[in-house]
Structures are given as C-alpha cells and as structure tokens.
Specification:
2 domains; 25% strand; 411 residues
C-alpha cells in the first residue's frame, strides 16, 4: 500500500458542509515510525505576490503529544524564506523530538506562528512521524473566521481541489498563530458525521481542536484536551473514528479562550483569559529564546503615512495587482461576500463577476448586456454609469479608479 493512501482529511464543499479528502504528499511521510515529526507546508500564494522573495519568512513550528508535553520545535533562522514554488519537497521541515523524555511519542498538537514582518498564506499542512499522518486544510480556517484568500495552488495530483489559504500576518486583525489537534483533522466517516451535527460548535468553538491567535508566541502553549479524548474505531476507513463523548469538547464546558493572549505558558493547562505580556516568565520555558515581537522589530503603522495607506487599502493587500481566474471555486463573489477575506482584486471569467477587494464590492464583467457599472476585463478598468462612448472614452461616474501594475492569470 502507498504510504499515505489511508490519509483522509477534510475540506468544505460549496454548501459549506465538511467533505472527506483523500490526499497526501508521499515524500513528507517517513517510511517507518521515527522519533521526529515531518511537517509539510503548502502555501497558497505565488512569486508574483511576494515580490519574488519567496512565500514569506519561515514560520515557527511547535509540537506537543496528546498529554500536552512538548516534543520539539522548528526555530526560524533569520532572513530565511520559504521557496515560492510549489515543490513541496522543499517545504518539508523535519523536527526532532528533543524536548521529551520519550521521543517516540506521536505529535497530536501543532502550532504554527509567524512573528516576522512577512505574511504567509497557508493552504495545507501535513504532519507525519511515519506511524500517524494527518493533513490540515486552510478551508477550516476560512470557515472559522480567520483572515483568508483564494489559493492559486491545488493539491498535487488533485487539480480540482484548491483549499483556501489563511493568513499568518502581523497586520491588525490577522492571526499570528494557529493551532490544532492533529487527529481531529482526519476525515473518517464517523468523525465527519459527528461534526455535521453542529459544525460551528465542533470545529470553531472547540478551541483545542482548532484555534487562532493574535499574539500567542511560539514558546507559549495552546489549550489541550485534558484528559485526552477517547475515540471509537471507524470500521469503514479502518482508522480512528468519532469521539466517545463528543459534546465534552465544546468551549462552553472547557473554558473561554482569549485570542489576544500573548506569550503565556501555564504547565497546569489552565488558562487565564486576562493574561498579558507580563506573564512571560510563568512556568517552564522553551530552550529557545523568544522571538522579537513585530512591535519590537517595527511598529505597526508607525507613522501617519502608513496608517493612511492601511485605511486606503481596506481589505486589499495590494490595489495595484489583479487576479484573473477561470477556475471553479475561485468565484469573485466568494471573497466579496465574506467578512474575513483579505487579498487582491479578483475577476472571475467563469462567474462573470469582479470583486473590488478594497471595499468588497461585487460588479458584473462588462459584456453585451452589462455596459455600465461593470468591470472591463480588456481595459482593466471599472466602467461608470455613463458607459463607454463611441470614441472609446470610459465613464468614471460613480465608480472608483483602478490602475493595475501587474496581473496574474489563474487556470
């Protein structure tokens, strides 16, 4: 049997219902159970959107077992970037279990943190030690309200599956860290049937299962299930199935988790939702020094010009860049109708729509029917209420001016 053939993750269909996905990246799975964890990162953005410098700075990666004991960490080298290509073998991080007395333990909790000034947009993360392999997809982050955008990249070998990507960013309102319980990412039939009973509660309001954080540092710890959850066996998938006591995982029974909490570590596993940065020295620390926070590296919107620029851009990462796409699942209405999308202007040929991401406003593409208040794909401008004159003059009445320096074509 192929190494990763049994992996089942999950994404969301067009109706926002969880759907199983069978996919794995084989070079990111060890041939046998080993005392380390291989973490494969799949990014959603590409070279044109990162100024040719790669997919952004490498993130911090922290690992724990099911008891909440740290196994190991990937600590960032200064100025090292993730390659901007889609060659996933260059995105595999092999993390030795050097922080646990039993290095053979399996990773069950992962936290990925971006505390450098470069943004990254994660579309999928595979986690494996050769014994157990799971995949987290960015669709879950989008569903739970993390800042997100469409992904140009599909799962290798699955051209029709393009997971959303979620931003790890220092910008206000974006997640700097995300954490999840790895085996809860398995998309086995009985597990998904449990989730479908109340998807928001199971997937977004059970924070140890999946959480996102504005300030949580890589040497802090996310919340864990205490005691560890127990699961039934899924006979159909021949893997771990649904939880034996599923409703015990809801946040209302566990605690309330403050997404603004920063740098705190509490070995007892109980959280203080009022914790601030002065909690830095609580409990046992990592063997690594804490990274500088973005505020130390460079103050966010440190002057009035930067603040005005952020306000001008709105929900648009770069108003001078346009994405023209023909792919199913890249409809412009998806980003325009979302309250958590963040990215670039999108023109969808398939849908016949254009989204101005600065204000998340949807327009028709100009055609024989729509001749005004529409987006002209050939000229790459918004056409106002006056339409286009016989001399080819474009009306700007009632629409913002658009000027693009670069265009990406997604298939």
């Amino acid at each position: 049997m192929v190494k990763g053939a049994k992996i089942l993750g999950f994404m969301f269909n067009a109706q926002k219902v969880v759907s199983p996905v069978s996919w794995s990246f084989e070079p990111g799975i060890p041939d046998r159970h080993i005392p380390e964890t291989w973490v494969t990162l799949m990014l959603g953005t590409h070279k044109d959107l990162t100024n040719g410098r790669g997919g952004g700075r490498e993130p911090y990666i922290s690992l724990w077992d099911d008891e909440g004991r740290r196994l190991g960490q990937h600590w960032v080298e200064n100025y090292k970037y993730i390659p901007d290509n889609n060659e996933l073998d260059k995105h595999v991080y092999k993390i030795q279990h050097l922080q646990n007395r039993d290095p053979s333990r399996t990773t069950r909790y992962v936290m990925i943190s971006q505390f450098k000034m470069d943004d990254i947009c994660l579309a999928a993360v595979q986690v494996s030690n050769g014994k157990e392999s799971t995949v987290w997809h960015g669709d879950l982050g989008e569903y739970c309200g993390v800042k997100w955008f469409l992904s140009e990249r599909s799962l290798p070998g699955k051209p029709d599956l393009k997971p959303k990507c979620v931003w790890l960013s220092t910008e206000k309102g974006a997640a700097r860290s995300i954490s999840w319980h790895t085996n809860d990412m398995l998309g086995t039939p009985s597990k998904l049937e449990q989730y479908k009973k109340d998807q928001k509660k199971y997937l977004c309001e059970s924070t140890p299962r999946f959480g996102w954080w504005f300030n949580l540092g890589p040497s802090a710890t996310p919340p864990f299930y205490r005691p560890p959850l127990k699961y039934a066996f899924d006979k159909e998938a021949k893997q771990e199935g649904g939880m034996i006591s599923p409703t015990d995982t809801f946040d209302i029974k566990l605690n309330y988790f403050d997404k603004d909490v920063a740098w705190m570590y509490n070995p007892a596993g109980t959280w203080d939702k009022m914790a601030e940065t002065e909690n830095l020295k609580l409990g046992k620390r990592s063997q690594y020094p804490e990274p500088e926070s973005p505020e130390v590296q460079q103050s966010e919107a440190s002057n009035s010009t930067e603040r005005r620029d952020i306000k001008r851009r709105g929900f648009n990462k770069d108003p001078s860049h346009l994405i023209i796409t023909e792919a199913e699942g890249h409809e412009a209405s998806l980003v325009c109708n979302s309250s958590s999308s963040y990215g670039w202007d999108v023109a969808s040929r398939r849908e016949g729509k254009y989204c101005d991401m600065t204000v998340r406003k949807l327009y028709d593409l100009c055609d024989s029917i729509h001749k005004s208040n529409c987006f002209d794909l050939e000229r790459k401008v918004l056409v106002g209420h006056g339409g286009i004159s016989a001399r080819g003059e474009v009306s700007a009445l009632g629409v913002p001016k658009k000027a693009y320096d670069s265009t990406a074509h997604w298939k």
